[in-house]
């Protein structure tokens, strides 16, 4: 019979838990050189030995067992056995060996909880670089728990770790004997009395029951009894906590003297300091930051050019090949070519840009530079009511707002976290990229300045900048409306600079592309197909009448058959269900310069922005003659005319539409995640209204100016 075990990975932020999780489970959870990358629990399975299967649970990092941030509470609940979905039988405690003192503090707390534990020392390579030598066997004796050195970046030590887990599994009742803290850390009487209520609980866990009483799921009578013990014995939570930390550090110091040889601290991480002197320089630091962001956006633009052209070309060829196979007329050919193929090419063509963007953001995070951006911008952020830590969510929102909003859990102050959540969707996410790209290509001339600076790339950057500046402005205004008495502070451990892991970056790029194609693709396909139906069919009588009218016209003037056929298609589209809906809404958005096709696109992209492209592809394919199947969507949009003969996509409409997509809240998933993170419908609703209103206002102004 094989045994089943639940193993939780815990440890300080940025100590390598997720790296180890990935190495053990073969999964690809996000890893980054930034404290607070993981903000929720994730599980995967791993074979420990022939007869032992384990479920491994990756958790957000915590500095100590005194949680302050939302993500720290996630780990706390699991460790305290308060999380019904994650009940670990044992713990792998991941500790950064190059940062021993602080990591050992947390280790000692976990050991005192008396859950079976194996310690995994990561970053041994970094430790030896700064001249730290650890006597692991000696440390094992002192701590009373098994320790294994691992390097999840190259899978070193995994076998030994599994062996250790196996031994612990055979002897699950194993517990280290000596506590790090003395019984006297709190009122001894209070502890003993509580132990009588919660029989079999470790002393240290009792301390937590006393400190966070309201947080635990006690029965009503237990709660009353514990509260009574606290008042009877004058229990003081703050004093207990301070005493605990002191006792622990005293023991840790002794242990380290016995088992660790540290190099002269002055020599420590000289390289790191040198780099920080450059990157965090009072003036130069900001120039470097601007340059980094500039290069990032420019590269998204021109690096992606070539693969995108390639994909577009392939689809043009594919479409004409498929149409040559299918019968020339009939709804099935139309559905294949204009519904499915058009929708598919609309999705796939953006893969290069999305991969490059995610890759570059991962690179920023992996090297440790992202944390420096937080540091550099803290002052500015504070002025508008945010925090240096808001930068990481904001920059990752350039890729996607959903994980970005979750990563705001890393922010301690409630008001700052809420503000960050409220403004994050204003940052231009990768779903806007397709819309930007296609509209820019339509209305901005492709000019190069100085031989390399593309005008289109510059406009793209301005759009990103507009979103960012608006985000800051909105936060500055909103901060007056959200009340808070909490003090704000900025504590972010600056991680050491590290060479990026290229494999990690490539994996992230591929994963994100996959998610984009599958998740977004599903929505795009469904909506494209639905739209195809709505724009092909209409009220039967009406459609018949239109067809009959053109039949008669063709009989009267057979020479003009071709142009009449084209006119018929347009008329049919106008009278289809989609046409009816579009024409109905058009008056509301005409002041922004949009026609009825665009109004349909705006409605469908309230589900998700990237649907815009699919919608356009469908509407323009359906409206066009079959002979134009082989041209690209961009071409079709460029040649689209209004009833009065002017171009639909002129500069004014193009810009107005771009601005609309920069600002409007068009993403169901984001609203859902905001509801989840703020635990209320109030904030997503406010967000939806303010963003849509702002979008309408700015697009209106833009159109009126450029008209
Ligand atoms: N040099 C070195 N780097 C490592 C080692 N283990 C992990 N890393 C790197 O450390 C960084 C942090 O790794 P993560 O796995 O994201 O850390 P985490 O503990 O999950 O962090 P949070 O989720 O933020 O709490 C990444 O850049 C890893 O590549 C190691 O043994 N040696
Ligand atoms: Mg992690």
Structural features, described:
The protein is an alpha/beta fold. Among the domains are: 1-268, 3-Layer(aba) Sandwich (Rossmann fold), CATH 3.40.50; 538-575. Helices cover 61% and strands 7% of the residues. The chain has 30 helices and ten strands. It has helices spanning 17-25, 70-79, 100-112, 124-129, 136-143, 158-170, 188-197, 203-211, 220-232, 237-259, 270-279, 284-325, 331-348, 351-367, 369-383, 391-396, 401-407, 414-423, 432-443, 455-478, 502-536, 540-556, 561-575, 577-589, 596-604, 611-623, 633-638, 651-663, 668-678, 682-706; strands spanning 3-11, 42-49, 52-58, 90-96, 117-122, 133-134, 147-149, 260-261, 448-449, 453-454. The strands form three sheets. Strands 2-3-1-4-5-7 form a six-stranded mixed β-sheet, with helices on both faces. Strands 6-8 form a two-stranded antiparallel ribbon. Strand 4, helix 3 and strand 5 (117-122) form a beta-alpha-beta unit. It is elongated and about 105 Å long. Residues 625-630 have low confidence and may be disordered. Magnesium ion binds at residues 17-18, 37-38.
């Amino acid at each position: 019979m094989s045994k089943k075990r639940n193993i939780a990975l815990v440890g300080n932020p940025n100590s390598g838990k997720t790296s180890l999780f990935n190495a053990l489970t073969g999964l690809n959870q996000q890893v980054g050189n930034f404290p607070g990358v993981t903000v929720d629990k994730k599980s995967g399975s791993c074979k420990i030995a022939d007869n032992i299967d384990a479920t491994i649970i990756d958790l957000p990092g915590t500095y100590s067992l005194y949680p302050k941030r939302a993500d720290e509470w996630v780990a706390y609940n699991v460790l305290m056995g308060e999380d019904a979905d994650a009940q670990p039988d044992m713990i792998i405690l991941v500790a950064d060996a190059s940062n021993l003192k602080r990591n050992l503090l947390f280790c000692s707390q976990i050991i005192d909880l008396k859950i079976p534990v194996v310690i995994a020392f990561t970053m041994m390579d970094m430790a030896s670089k700064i001249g730290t030598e650890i006597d692991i066997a000696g440390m094992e004796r002192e701590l009373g728990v098994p320790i294994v050195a691992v390097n999840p970046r190259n899978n070193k030590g995994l076998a030994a770790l599994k062996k250790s887990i196996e031994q612990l599994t055979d002897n699950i009742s194993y517990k280290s004997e000596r506590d790090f803290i003395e019984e006297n850390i709190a009122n001894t009487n209070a502890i003993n009395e509580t132990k009588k209520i919660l029989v079999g609980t470790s002393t240290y866990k009792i301390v937590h029951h006393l400190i966070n009483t309201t947080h635990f799921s006690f029965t009503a009578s237990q709660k009353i009894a514990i509260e009574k013990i606290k008042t009877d014995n004058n229990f003081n939570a703050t004093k207990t906590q301070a005493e605990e930390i002191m006792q622990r550090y005293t023991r840790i110091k002794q242990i380290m003297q016995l088992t660790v040889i540290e190099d002269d601290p002055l020599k420590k991480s000289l390289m790191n300091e040198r780099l920080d002197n450059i990157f965090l320089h009072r003036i130069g630091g900001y120039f470097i930051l601007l340059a980094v962001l500039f290069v990032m956006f420019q590269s998204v633009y021109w690096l992606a050019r070539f693969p995108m052209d390639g994909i577009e070309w392939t689809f043009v060829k594919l479409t004409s090949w498929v149409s040559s196979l299918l019968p020339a007329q009939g709804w099935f050919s139309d559905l294949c070519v204009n519904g499915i193929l058009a929708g598919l090419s609309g999705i796939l063509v953006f893969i290069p840009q999305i991969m490059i963007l995610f890759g570059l953001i991962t690179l920023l995070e992996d090297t440790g530079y992202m944390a420096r951006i937080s540091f550099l911008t803290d002052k500015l952020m504070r002025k508008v009511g945010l925090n240096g830590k808001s930068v990481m969510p904001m920059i990752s929102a350039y890729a996607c707002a959903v994980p970005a909003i979750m990563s705001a859990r890393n922010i301690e102050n409630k008001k700052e976290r809420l503000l960050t959540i409220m403004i994050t969707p204003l940052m231009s996410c990768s779903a806007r990229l397709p819309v930007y790209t296609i509209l820019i290509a339509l209305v901005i001339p492709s000019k190069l300045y100085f031989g390399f600076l593309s005008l289109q790339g510059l406009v793209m950057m301005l759009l990103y900048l507009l979103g960012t500046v608006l985000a800051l402005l909105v936060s500055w205004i909103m901060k007056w409306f959200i009340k808070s008495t909490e003090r704000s502070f900025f504590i972010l451990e600056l991680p050491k600079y590290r060479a990026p892991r290229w494999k990690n970056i490539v994996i992230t790029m591929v994963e994100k592309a996959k998610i984009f194609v599958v998740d977004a693709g599903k929505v795009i396909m469904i909506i494209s197909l639905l739209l195809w139906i709505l724009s092909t069919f209409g009220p039967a009588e009406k459609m018949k009448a239109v067809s009959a009218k053109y039949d008669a016209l063709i009989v009267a003037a057979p020479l003009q058959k071709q142009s009449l056929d084209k006119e018929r298609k347009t008329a049919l589209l106008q009278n289809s269900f989609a046409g009816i809906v579009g024409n109905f809404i058009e008056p509301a958005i005409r002041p922004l310069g949009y026609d009825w096709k665009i109004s349909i696109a705006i409605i469908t992209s309230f589900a998700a922005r990237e649907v815009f492209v699919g919608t356009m592809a469908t509407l323009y394919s359906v409206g066009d003659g079959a002979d134009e199947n082989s041209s690209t969507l961009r071409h079709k949009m460029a040649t689209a005319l209004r009833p009065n003969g002017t171009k639909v996509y002129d500069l004014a409409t193009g810009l107005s539409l771009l601005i609309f997509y920069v600002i409007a809240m068009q993403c169901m998933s984001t609203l859902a995640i905001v509801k989840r993170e703020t635990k209320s419908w109030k904030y997503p609703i406010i967000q939806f209204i303010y963003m849509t209103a702002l979008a309408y206002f700015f697009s209106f102004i833009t159109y009126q100016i450029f008209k």
